[in-house]
Amino acid sequence: MTADVSTERPAAGSTAAGDTLILPSYGRAPAGNHPPLDFTGYRSTALRHPKQPLVLLPQRLTEVTGPLLGDELITPTDADLTTQHAGEPQGQRIIVTGRVLDSGGRPVPDTLIEIWQTNAAGRYRHAREHHPAPLDPNFDGVGRCITDSAGRYRFVTIRPGAYPWGNHYNAWRPAHIHFSLFGRAFTQRLVTQMYFPGDPLLPLDPIYNSVPDEKARQRLIPEFSIELTQPEWALAYTWDIVLRGRNATVFEGRPA
Amino acid sequence: MSGFVTPSQTVGPFFAMRLPWRDGPYVVPEGTPGAITIIGRVFDGAGNVIPDALIETWQAAPDGTFAHPDDPRGASPGGYHGFRGFGRCETAPDGSYRIVTLKPGPLPAPDGGTEAPHLDVSVFARGLLDRVVTRMYFPDEAEANGSDPVLSSVPADRRGTLIAEPLPAPAEGVEGSPGQLRFDVHLQGEGETVFFDV
Question: What ipTM, to 2 d.p.?
């Protein structure tokens, strides 16, 4: 690692006028990895996707840096959604844990993760939520944590419920938890959803199925872990989240 | 090209449960000397405002530095007290957002040129299966904008979508910052904002 840094980082003073600025660069995901912005099965995309092609932006200083949001945002109960109120929430207690990695397999330490979800009955605590399922006075459905030095994170929460949405007749979203991640660069920002293995609604869900590549889609599903399941307490799921990886240093904007 | 990553999924309609922070729109505390306010609205392809979008901004400090270890020039010698570089604001029922920040400095480009002052802007919303990314440039930087390598890569007739509009300064004796800019985002249709593949 130290050797990498010494060869990748420019010597001090190399950015003086006339010199080349040497920056890291972040690889783009392969075709089929991310959903298209225009996806007929998900009605809300119709008026919200750009019709003009995206313009390629070779990464520069603003793109290879990013907000390093830290501990000042986090309180100790933020990672345990079952202890944010005086009483215990209804539903199946679960542990969701794993690592944040880049596509080169390197851990992403000290990075903020934010999550939100429904309660066990499939209801969000939000003013515009109209699903007639009960709110749970002991469950807000929001959490945060920072990955440790090995990129690990851990949440304790309640298994969310499925809920109906108006996308098409009898449309139900499979149970899921929303995840928001920063990584260390603007290019690594990711907002996604974690589903649950074996959910019969998955094959019917346009949002899940908007990811073209089947292997990529399966990266949205954690594994049940009996090893991490706590006896007499909570089921455990492991889910590694993979952000874009850093390529070897390139001289951007210069012909090879 | 690189290995597979975790796919993006939409933020959906209920991200405001978690993502907005009370001081999220304040890249610097309100009232900071030299602070500017960026206001704007987010529109869909039918020209309707989007009341459930999230705007995030990321930018350099006024001296063109980033408080980040991957800036090979090192951090700002003096630093900017209270400057976070990052702003986050959900849109209101009228589709509007507001970011209070400092104007960033110009940046050296890897090819030896100079980037005009700009903010990177991410837009998230229900109906967006992945974020879209744009840049905001400043209307009082015509010369720097003219030689900016990113703006130059955009078709000339669409560059205007990336340049904020100046707003009149508040009247004498009225509270507010003199530096007010409008930056609207059109996800689709007439005047569609230029979005980048970063």
Answer: 0.94
